[in-house]
Structures
1.
Amino acid sequence: MKKAVAARNIRVLIAKVGLDGHDTGIKVLATALRQAGMEVIYLGLYQTPEGVIKSAVEEDVDVLGLSFLSGGQLTYTPKIVEMMRQSRLDNVLLLVGGVFPREQIPALRQMGVDQVFVGSPLEEIVSYIHANVGRKQPAG
Amino acid sequence: MSDRVADAAKLDLTEAYFEKPKRLQTASGFPVKELYTPEDLQASDYPRNVGDAGSYPFTRGVHHNMYRGRFWTRREVCGYDTPSSTNERLRFLAETGVSGLGFHIDLTTQFQMDADHPRAEGEIGVVGVPLYSIEDMEDLVQGIAQDKVSMIIIECSCIASAVLLAQYIAVAEKRGLDPSKLRGTSMNDPLHGRISCNFIPQNPIGLALKMATDITEYCTKYMPFWNPTNVNMYDLRETRINAAQEIAFAFSIATTYIDAAIQRGLDIDDFAPRRAFYVSANIDFFEEIAKMRAARRMWARIMKEKYKAKSPDSWRFRFGVHTAGHSLTPQQPLNNIVRVAYEALAAVLGGAQSISPTGYDEPVAIPTEQAHAIAVRTQQILAYETGVTNVADPLGGSYYIESLTDRVEEEAGKILAEIDEMGGAVGALESGWFIRQEEKALQEWQEEIDARKRIVVGLNSFVVPEDKTPGGYHAVDPRAQRLMIDKVRRLKDTRDNQRVRQAIDNLRREADKGEKHNLMPVILDAVKASATLSEIAGTIREAYGYSYDVLDVMKSPF
């Protein structure tokens, strides 16, 4: 079922999974999303995939955003995608961003990430969310 | 008109031709005039405020002849996958022509985990080298004459700092080398780790100061050529604070370590000569040079006037430089070679003792061999071709540079005084003041980028579509995870576990003897008994009332 996202503020959960403590990027993103009128739940550092999914369900979010700098994107993303499927978070947008080679973007999209942002201007992320939130159709 | 003539008439560069700079201030926001003259130096007092290179207050350099006496150390740091892989890169760097080596540890080691920790898999060897035990350190320095190289150990975790040094010493002793001949540096700056990389759970303030002092005390007694600390201004600057804040935040942290050492009973002139710093070289060229000169002068005064240090060696602000990672862009990464070159030049003109230029691929991944090689060549071109090495402080006396040096010092002094008022670095840490300043700086920096008040080529101007990293990028070896997990399991199975238990019991007993009791000797024993970094760190943590495991996911096996 498509969510009536227009009727309320877009809810975005952002988190850092794994041991990576670089939060500069995620902090500026949180500010930009809030300035764009979205509700941002910043889960913080050292999260596990399980913890992130649990919060995503509890908080009934529209978007899940993960930030990686220290190489965790290929390790943790498949787990997140699988858990989203298991938890029926099929119409939640999954976005990944941070510092890693662009060459990995196709692989991340293949895994099930909706969009990847590497070195992207913040407005691009905000626009993408506005344009795509609530659009995903649940599987089967 | 023919089509070709018509087309030529369209190309118009008038606007570009007459363009002028819009940003008329330094990166820190100091407005700058279009011209500086002798009037700007009227108040300057050369003997008192500037001095020759090698003379108090060392504004012009810590040695009278600077690079004529010795080039700066050409250093690159590395660390990835396994100790053996990192060893290969260390040798490659040596072959390429560095004059000093260094390594940085991975996140599992930063978190004091063994490879078989439930949260370790996927993080082993990804951003640095995992070093769980003496055998890992042995593999790391295979074929490297420890008594004939300068080695920097880069870490951000107070107990890991001590254990890694102990591992390095233990391997040297095993090889029949005299540890008092070892030359190098331990980063040993746990306080900065709390506010620049969020290494908080592994660095509780009291324990961090105790371990930092243990390392200082131990090295002061037994390792005269080892810098027991490298106060890391570089990481602080990466949070987007400015040049004056970089000095002030770092000096408040550095003086906290000095106070702790003095409280321990050390004499200032015994340990101060081996204080060292790790400084950023950012992209605002002249401001960075001014910052380094200001730092030297400020530090000299603090050491002489505040701490009453008597030896000139105690007054010297010695530093290594790392070019600023956050000034580089993932867009059009080859441009970073140019940025790094300018920043390395600033470091030379600023009088650094050691320089580690980053790879051009720093905003993408850890450096490839090629990126590392170019960084080394950057230094070699500086050293051998440009001639800038032949004169100490060649920009000294410049009306602009001396004014800017004064300006940076003035601002840094104000901020340092502000931090002093709130109880020094510990007060600023506990109240969250540092973090709030950093967040403010980050927000301002981002706003300037978004509004194009700060132009970054390729990022917010001259943008082109791209999808590949030129020269490729470093790929993590997927086998490294399994290899290190199996290796540490094998170690735990085959070592003399009786001996380990005894060493751990001993460690616990010694750790219970109070904050002033130096744990380095007993850590060294435990390392030699093949106790892992995690086991040693966890035991000390428990003795101090913390969870064995930094993430409190597993309990002590003892």
Note: The mean pLDDT of chain B is 96.
2.
Amino acid sequence: MEKEIRLRVNDKEYPVRVEPGDLLMDVLREKLGLTGTKKGCGTGDCGACTVILDGRPVTSCLVLAQAAEDKPIQTVEGLERNGELHPLQQSFIKHGAVQCGYCTPGMLMTAKSILDQNPNPTEMEVRTGMAGNLCRCTGYVKIIDAILDTSRVMAKETL
Amino acid sequence: MAESYYCMGMITAYRKVNSITDALLALDQLENTRVIAGGTDLLLKLSSDLSPSIILIDITGVKQLGGIEVTDKGLRIGATTRMGDIARSNLLTGSLKMLAQGASVVGSTQIRNLATIGGNLCNASPSADTAAPLLALDAKVEIHSPKGIRIINLGDFFIGPGQTSLARDEILSAVLIPFQPNNASGIYIKHAARGAMCLAMVGVAAYCAHKDSGHVFRLALSAVAPTPIRASKAERLLNQAAKVDEQLIQKAAELAAKESEPINDVRASAKYRREMVSQLTARALREVDAGQSVVTKRI
């Protein structure tokens, strides 16, 4: 039975009709047209579908859309500010941390939440924090470099 | 709408409740209801079991079921407390840190932000990472039903792989951990193929409290029996000994290995698991005997 709910995504309110079993991942992509969030394994193992829900990164394939109602959601589309890419996005490009790009939105959202909680993480803290995001292309090194570099860049910007 | 990788069409209704009473009422009055919190195990189970129609009652909004608080008896951890919050909690001090350690190695960051301790226990995987630490802390569980509240030892809660003594009309509401001596130590070692996202092949939780009159050891094992277990024979050997030395630790470790009933599965063979119970138990006992409370090295 369909129900209308309100999803707050990237600081915008979206009224949307959902079935009880509809997953947040699918509602974002199919009903809100926000296809930046990717579908990987569908079982919470690969992290491609990662979004930030209520301030914490979660695998949206394991979140029912109705459970996410009225909670702030941030997707990769919400990273840019006034047409400018987020420092993380800029860093990923600079470091060559994007190959096919499929894992990238998930990587960015998890990385952003790590830096939000911990602006100066150690390499180990980044690796542990990112462990739920898989990449089949890059071998991870440049992704880790890009994240650590961003923390340095953002630290400089706040001085 | 395009189909997801797995079809959740069996979920015919979803309802958020604000109180335990409402949750129990829903379980009682409606057909085919299941309680959902984090959903990280349940949603996968529903899709793989090709369940018939099901109504989900979301209990994450029930205040009584959330949060960690200090009571006059010890610590009360609400069933819907997320793994991530348990991992980061500064109320888990001393030997209780091993519960934080267990919670911190469940899945991944994303999973830990959804998964709850109640779900971990009710899913009752023999390898559940919070189980061995809680058993070693002599934890109890609080269960609500229309008939009232019952509190039982965690050891009596698990009855088989994926099976608990929870009845259809009951909800696990909290985990209760009794106060431990300030000088007690606890450690949880998770032995798994990878550093994240893996189920344990072997889980060992060891506890030690030294007193003037002697010492108390507790030892719990996960992933090596139909349920998480206490290695009570090994404990008896340790607790009856006058002096703790390397020889005693080795003997206890071998006894723990004998007490385990591991199986061959996709993750490891029974033989390997039994050997690793012995190795990791010895390692864990050495650490807690020396007063260590945190695993300092990942295997």
Note: Residues 57 and 113 of chain A are 6 Å apart (CA to CA).
